Backbone:
């Protein structure tokens, strides 16, 4: 009976949409849901991408990326996800290299899981770091915050802010109150 409800749920999803075990828990007890999902993987109806993350086995779909799987896993546990500060600092040219494995910032509880041959890391960041999300301003703030007080020079701040437009710079000024004092001071000096 549980497998029927899950199968109906799966075929109502849009093509390529990822879902998790937690999405199916309202169809029965945990053991029954796990068994039904295992059977659906075995018969080729769904594909298991990571522990607890699945996708309907539709042909001609691009492979799911690390961010898509991390996003599905984070949402299943009620977490908000954003790019990690090390990767942002690397993208902005502030440091030479970012994380070696896919790493994302989340607002609750750090964790990691396997996706194919790699390990995806979800690292907890405080709510103040997560407030900007993945907006340009949020990315600049998180990148500079990652670099830290000791290494964050005025030149790096100016380099990071050079990609911001006039409206984004105004938004940045309004977020200074939520930053640590050392970072806010550097923005004020620029």
Residues:
């Amino acid at each position: 009976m549980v497998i029927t409800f899950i199968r109906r749920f799966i075929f109502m999803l849009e093509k390529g949409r990822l879902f998790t075990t937690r999405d199916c828990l309202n169809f029965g007890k945990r053991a029954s849901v796990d068994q039904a999902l295992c059977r659906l993987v075995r018969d080729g109806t769904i594909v298991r991408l990571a522990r607890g993350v699945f996708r309907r086995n539709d042909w001609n779909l691009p492979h799911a990326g690390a961010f898509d799987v991390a996003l599905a896993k984070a949402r299943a546990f009620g977490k908000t996800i954003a790019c990690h500060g090390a990767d942002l600092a690397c993208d902005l040219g502030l440091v030479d290299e970012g994380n070696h494995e896919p790493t994302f910032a989340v607002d609750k509880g750090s964790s990691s899981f396997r996706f194919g041959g790699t390990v995806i890391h979800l690292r907890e960041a405080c709510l103040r770091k997560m407030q900007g999300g993945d907006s340009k301003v949020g990315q600049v703030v998180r990148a500079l915050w990652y670099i830290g007080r000791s290494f964050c020079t005025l030149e790096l701040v100016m380099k990071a802010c050079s990609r911001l437009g006039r409206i984004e710079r105004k938004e940045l000024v309004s977020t200074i109150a939520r930053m640590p004092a050392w970072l806010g001071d550097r923005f004020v000096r620029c």
